[in-house]
Amino acid sequence: MKRLSIAILLFSLLLSCSQKQAQKAHKSELVKHLESIFYNDDFAVIPDKSFNVADFGAIADGKTLATEAIQQTIDAAAEAGGGKVIFPAGTYLSGALFVKSNVELHIGEGVIIQAIQNNDYYPRKWTRIAGIEMEWPAALINVYDEKNVRITGKGVIDGNGKYWWDKFWGDPKYSGGMWGEYKDKGIRWSVDYDCERVRPVVIWKSEDVLLKDFTVKRAGFWTISLTYSTRVHVDGLVVRNNIGGHGPSSDGIDTDSSKDVLVENCDIDCNDDNLCIKAGKDADGLRVNRPAENIVYRNCITRAGHGLITLGSETSGGMRNIEVYGLKAMGTNIGIRFKSAKVRGGIIENIHFHDIKMENVANPFHFELNWYPEYSYCTIPDDIPEEEIKDRWRVLSQRVVPEEKGIPEFRNIKLSDIKVTKAKRAFYANAYPERPIHHINWENVSVEAEESGQLSYASNWTMNDVVLKTATGQPITLIDCNNIQQPELIKTNSQPIQEETNRTLEEQFQTINRNGDVVIIPVNPTETKALTNGDSTLYSKEFSLYILRQEDATLHFYEPLGDGFYYSEVEVITSQNGNLIQVKGQKDHDYTLFVNRATKPKSIYGADNWNYQENTRQAIIQVKGKNFSIQIDD
């Protein structure tokens, strides 16, 4: 018995070793290359000397501006040949800080570096914003043209972003701000650039940088920007941007035209792309022509956001040699996401996504290469005086010549060992007839969704051991596609899903109409979300409007013009004691209106179809469009 136990133990140890060796053997050459850089004891080594900000006069009361004292500490460490800058616990109010070569900024547990809400304390620097090079306020923490830098510790970098969020679109969101002003002028495409929202951390044209263990919250704009940099390791960061408001475009971690980057073990909750890779935008990005390459994102969790992992929309410089694995989506509404436009250009190739889990992600695979066609070519309105036109507007509105140079190409992409449950739409892809999204290889992928989805302009997709479970069992709809292999289709019982959806909506209705005075409730079936006045939502081809009472009322909600960057207003108006219903928006929908009426109307004008349900006492009205009026006569 003893010999048997020993034999079992030896076998277990041997099996364990074999598994570890197998795992090691299965690592890609890219992963092994990056680990050889970042797991080397010589990476970003800092001299063993400490410099305390308190010795230079920094006060941690959250009120006294500490910028100068902290910067003096950093400079002293750099002048001494390098060292670690440390902080006593407390909150340090600060403007822009610039970390130098051979310096570690150690933000220990109990330490908060908080952004002062005043752009005067962030000197203007040449940078890249959303794919365009320009002068802009520096970030709170900057690494500019440096080498051998560490930012570490269990402390917090607080972007203090609500000041900039409100500046962007008012409080509550969409109530005004520059968003409203620019929208009225017809230049909404420039709001993100002109609002000049301060970023928490920017790494610019630097080498050998480690970002480790700290938390960033309330980013004014993109949270972590890694631009034109080489050999950057991001490990164990926590991002929490949905605190105390709604931060527009508050991406989590963006790698922008950088090389040899490893992002791992991060936990992201934001209000745009959780994890993202970018490479410049339009004519300016094509001018720079710098790719994002040799990048691994792995073992991260994403919560609220609009993209578990996003490639784009800034694709002009191209992307290649990228591996993404070990991710888990827990709340983001889009999973693996490609974005581009017909003016972006760039070749995106040699990408591998694998070992990923997604639950309750509405759109697990969303490839929109015609992202925001309405805004891709920014047009300066004729009624804006010449002297008011900003230089950056001229850059933004520069045309791509020849036009075909602006068509992006996504090719040679592999997706394997991915499990998706409780999705809305399984697959979506939309490219161009000139350049379809092509040679996409799917292996060992399981998707449970309400609908199969649609592909437009795709070619040469293989699906091996790919299972798609939907209530209808219908295949993916193909439009102008070539050589697309369908997944194995399994029809599931839709009743439990529908019952859960009905329960969810019933609970939302009870919350919204707790006082019994609500007239209009829009419902987005893609999100299973009932909306209140001022809410934003994902785009959905289908939409429902519930008119609960015959009263005059007005409600506004907001939907993306593309799929997440700019939003447009949808206005729903009931008047004439509820007999006239008007909808005003910018996107076409298949609307179904559920109008509570005690008796069947004599006639309804403006509807494509309608009927009256005696058991629910509802007029059910169907109409397609973006602007329409429904007149009900009793």
UniProtKB/TrEMBL annotation:
Keywords: Glycosidase, Hydrolase, Signal. One of its GO terms (molecular function) is polygalacturonase activity. Pfam families: Glyco_hydro_28 (PF00295). GO terms for biological process: carbohydrate metabolic process. Residues 1-22 form the signal peptide. The keyword Hydrolase applies. PANTHER family: PECTIN LYASE-RELATED, PLASMIN AND FIBRONECTIN-BINDING PROTEIN A. Belongs to the glycosyl hydrolase 28 family. This is Endopygalactorunase. It comes from Draconibacterium orientale.
